[in-house]
Design goal:
Elements (H helix, E strand, L loop, with lengths): L1 H15 L4 E9 L3 E8 L6 E8 L4 E2 L13 E7 L14 E8 L2 E3 L2 E4 L2 E6 L5 E6 L2 E4 L5 H9 L21 H8 L33 H10 L7 H10 L29 E7 L13 E4 L12 E4 L8 E2 L3 E3 L7
Parallel strand pairs: 12-15
Antiparallel strand pairs: 1-2, 2-5, 3-4, 3-6, 6-7, 8-11, 9-10, 11-16, 12-13, 13-14
Length: about 325
């Protein structure tokens, strides 16, 4: 009986960590706009579908009620009539972005990386094998829209999101301490007086990357999303599998080819915070240890992954993040 109760407790604790995963999106424009996608971990009671239509600076509201669509755990498809789209619509002028709305959070498409050992080039003469377990990684950098949802959900007011894992920092409440000390309420450059908040931020469009965030903010956001920041090894593998857009670091969701969004903006996007860092007991700055970031702060394409180690209070106009879901820590169904 005791073992049975223990199993039930473990099962439900895992279920609580099972957030919906949107993957395998395919989009085709013919007589109507056809979209297929796969959902894992569907909680139909709390998960709704939305589909955005936008170009480089403007968003078009599709005249359709996507939130009432009945979703399936597994493959789904939807058709949108041409009269519901802009008159000049085609997939070269506009982006179509499916997203899942779940308990106030916004999830975009993720790519599965199968566990294994992957060759990674250190330089022209040296290769190393990078070993990872199965994980899903967001195909895009975290956007202003996604982070605004965190702000609107009072993410800066709940300590539970700011508690740091003991294997990352020796003081688990250090993030909450600095939130209070520096009165963090928004990413630097955002304003509650503006609508939207990020109107005057370096990357000010809804689907562009959120930037000017400290590591503590990126970590709290990932916690709120019930996800994690990528490790350095996960980003090494993602780097090899990513595509280049060539449209500048703030262009956000930009690369689309053959009906699919590739894993993008790792080689030519903004810098990104990682979950990796120095040892938790190695106090280097501000009573906490330093954390790693993928370094890409200019309009050029990386030919190899470059990283830096910074104080987690560091922020910059070119610094954002993305998220991963580790399948060995979540119940994928």
């Amino acid at each position: 009986m005791k073992n049975y109760l223990l199993f039930i407790l473990i099962f439900f604790s895992m279920a609580l960590n099972a957030v919906p995963i949107l993957t395998n999106v395919f989009i085709k424009n013919a007589d109507s706009l056809y979209i297929s996608f796969e959902i894992l971990n569907l909680d139909a009671k709390f998960t709704k579908l939305d589909i955005a239509c936008f170009n480089d600076s403007l968003e078009y509201k599709i005249n359709a009620d996507f939130e009432s669509k009945i979703l399936n755990n597994g493959m789904n498809n939807i058709s949108i009539k041409k009269e519901q789209l802009p008159q000049d619509f085609d997939l070269k002028r506009y982006k179509i972005l499916p997203k899942l709305l779940y308990k106030g959070r916004i999830y975009y498409e993720m790519k599965k990386i199968n566990g294994g050992s992957y060759p990674y080039s250190i330089d022209k003469k040296t290769m190393e094998l990078v070993t990872v377990r199965d994980y899903y990684i967001s195909k895009f950098e975290i956007t202003n829209e996604q982070f605004a949802a965190f702000v609107n959900a009072d993410g800066y007011e709940f300590q539970e999101y700011w508690e740091i894992s003991s294997n990352l920092m020796s003081k688990e409440d250090i993030g909450w301490y600095y939130l209070s000390k520096y009165k963090m309420t928004l990413p630097h450059g955002w304003s509650f007086k503006e609508n939207p908040f990020y109107k005057k931020a370096p990357s000010h469009f809804r689907y562009s990357p959120v930037t000017n965030i400290r590591w503590f903010e990126a970590y709290a956001f990932a916690n709120w999303m019930e996800c994690e920041l990528p490790t350095f090894e996960q980003m090494q593998v993602a780097f090899v599998k990513s595509k280049v857009s060539g449209k500048g670091k703030f262009s956000g969701i930009s690369e689309f080819k053959n009906g699919k969004y590739p894993l993008q903006k790792i080689r030519d996007g903004v810098s990104e915070w990682l979950e990796s860092g120095v040892e938790p007991n190695s106090i280097a700055c501000a009573s906490c240890n330093e954390m790693c970031l993928i370094e890409n702060n200019s309009d050029y394409v990386l030919d190899k992954l470059s990283y830096a180690v910074k104080c987690p209070l560091f922020r910059a106009p070119f610094l954002g993040s993305r998220i991963v879901i580790n399948t060995d820590r979540s119940r994928i169904k």
